[in-house]
Specification:
It is globular, with a radius of gyration of 17 Å. It is 25% helix and 29% strand. Helix 4 links the parallel strand 5 and strand 6. It has 244 residues and is of the alpha/beta class. It has one domain: Ribonuclease Z/Hydroxyacylglutathione hydrolase-like (Metallo-beta-lactamase, Chain A), CATH 3.60.15.10. A seven-stranded mixed sheet has the order 6-5-4-3-2-1-14. The protein has a seven-stranded mixed sheet with strand order 7-8-9-10-11-12-13. Helix 7 crosses helix 8. The chain binds zinc ion (2 copies). One zinc ion binds next to loops.
Amino acid sequence: MKCTVVGMWGGFPKKNEPTSGYLVEKDGFAILLDCGSGVAAHVQNYIDLNALHHVFVSHYHYDHSSDLGTFLFSRMINTQLKRVDKQLNIYGPADNDVKSRVDKVKQNNFHSYNKDSTFQVGPFSIKFHKNAHSVETYAMRITDDAGHSLVYTADSSYRKSLARFAEDADVLITECSLYEEEDGEKMGHMNARDVGMLAEKAGVEKVILSHLPHYGNLEELAETFRKVGAGEAVLAEAGMEIEV
Ligand SMILES: [Zn+2]
Ligand SMILES: [Zn+2]
């Protein structure tokens, strides 16, 4: 499978660079992981909105879900224009408000999930891990029909269970929101040292550092990672393509 980083900033977007959004594709089938600010506009550099029928949302913080409404309207209007006849499926943690917002807009469907859920969508199987974050949040493990796997942490403090969930993944896309002197545990996020430990414990060789902070020297995140983590780590960039 191929994963394209649509956006990778934590909190808010930069000019032409969205917050969280990752497009995962195989054999002409696509799913989107998170839809933060700017993702609906920028994902169109890689795929027609009408060809995308499955959006998985990790949690409802704005930097992961603020374009949800944009996706709903696009499906409704493009259906009226007869450009698409399939429903758009939104998957997220159970939330009555989100469910009613999604179900109210025609041609959109909401599916809630929890840590025990598994979805089979096209060539992908998707499983979830409940994270340590300020709201209900899930990491996702996507395995394709050839057995290749991608783990996306979304937002979380470091947990051993998260390392077990990511075990032996071919690629780990992990949040790396903080520098090593900042305490991730308190903030519900991971610093670069936590991320190194996560990758090391999980035995992952290829790591993409994402959900990046808007301050400091980002290269330091990768340097800290290398002191602790095994494997190769690169900073995520908008438009980056990752072969899994
Ligand atoms: Zn976030
Ligand atoms: Zn968050």
